[in-house]
Amino acid sequence: MEQNNRAPLIYIHAGRFRVERGLFENCSKDGMMVSCEPGKEIVGGVVRDLVGRKVIRDTVSISGDGKQGAKVRDVLVENIKAYDSELRGAVEVSDGAEDITVRNVYAENCVYGIDIQDHGQKLQINRNVTISQLEAVNCKYAVRNANHPFGHSTISISDVTARDCGQALQLKNTENYTIRNVRVFAQSRNGQNAILVSNCHGVSIEGVTIEGGAAEGAGLLIENSNRVTVRNLTIAGTRNSYAHGVKVTASHGDFSSINLSQIDALHVGAAGILLEKGKGGSLSDYTVANNRAQVQDLVGGRGRVIENNTGPSR
Fold this sequence. Notes:
Structural class: mainly beta
Distance between the termini: 57 Å
Helix content: under 10%
Largest sheet: 12 strands, parallel
Order of helices and strands: EEEEEEEEEEEEEEEEEEEEEEEE
C-alpha cells in the first residue's frame, strides 16, 4: 500500500488535548498526528509517555495546515521513545508550528530523533521551538532541520547526545538559533560533518564535544551564514579523522560577524579552523581568538581579528 493511502492510528484536529501512556507497534504511518484542518488553528495540548516500535513514519507528528496558514501552537511533547522507524523518527514539528516544546526523547535505528521542517509552502513557517534532552543512537540525524528560507525563526536545542549517527545536527534556513551542550560519539558515516549550519543567521553554539568520529569533513561546518558565535567546542581524543574542527565557508553572497573562541581542535587531519570563500562569496568582520587550533584563513576579509591561537597560523 502506498504511503498516501495510510493513516495515523490517532488523528487530532482540535486543541486542549491530552495523549498519555501509549504504545504504538508496527504502524503503517504515524503513531499519532496533530494536524490543523485548513484554516482552523489548534491551540494547547500535551503528549507524553509514548513509545513507538517499528512505526513506519513518526511516533508523534505535529503539523500546521500549511495552505491557509493555520498554526498549531502551545503543545508540549515529552517522554517519547522510538525504535526502528524506517522512514522517519520520534517527533516531527512542521508546516506552521509555534511555541512547541519537545523534551526527553530517545530514538534508535531511525532516520532522525527530531525533525523540524516545512514541505515547500511559504505559509509553513515554524517559530519558537524548544528541544531538550534528546538521545539518538544509530540514526541518520539526531536533529534534522529541513526548512526552506521562508522566515523560520527562534529554535533552541540543548542537551543532545548523538551516538553512531550520520550527522548530529543539520540546521538550515532559520534565524535565531541557540545550541547548547551537544555530545557526538562515534559518528558512523564517512564524508559528512558532525554539525551543519547552512544559511542560518543569529546563531549561538556553546558546549560541543565531538569524539571518535569517522567522518572526513569538519566537526562543525558553517556555510553562508551571518552572526554566528561558537564557543567551547572540543574535538576530543588524539586520533580523529576529521579534516577540520570548524570550517567556515562563504560560497556565494556577503557574510559577516563570525566569532570563534575556545575551540580545541589540535588533533585533526588539517587546520583545526579553516575559513574560505568561493568565487561569488565574501566574509568580513570575523574574530578567531583564544583557540587551541591551527588557523588557516584563506579569505583575508575586512575587519578580521585572528589572535591568541595555539599552533601556527597557515
